[in-house]
Design goal:
Number of domains: 1
Region (Disordered): 1-27
Organism: Mesorhizobium robiniae
Biased composition (Basic and acidic residues): 8-22
Protein name: 1,4-alpha-glucan branching enzyme
Order of helices and strands: EHEEEHEE
Length: 90
Amino acid sequence: MSDSKTTTNHDEIRQWAEDRGGRPAVIRTKGEGGILRIDFGEPEEEFEAVEWDEFFRIFDENNLAFLYQDETGGGKTSRFNKFVERNQGG
C-alpha cells in the first residue's frame, strides 16, 4: 500500500502535477474562485483552465492543502490527489 502525503508548498504541487501531465483548472461556482482540480489528458468540459497564479490564489484563500500519492500500491506513478482543509495546528 502506498502512503499519501500532504503539502501546501506551491512548487511541490506544481511539480507533481506537471510530472504527470496535469494542468491547473477550476470548476466555476457562484461567487469568487471555484473548485480546484488538476486536469490530466483531454480537458474535461466543466473544467476551466487557469494559470498557476490564479490556482494558488484560490488555494491559499480557501486555506487548502494538497493530499497526493506519488506511487500506487503496485509501484506505478499515481495521479491520486484531492484538496483538503489545512490542519490548523500544522
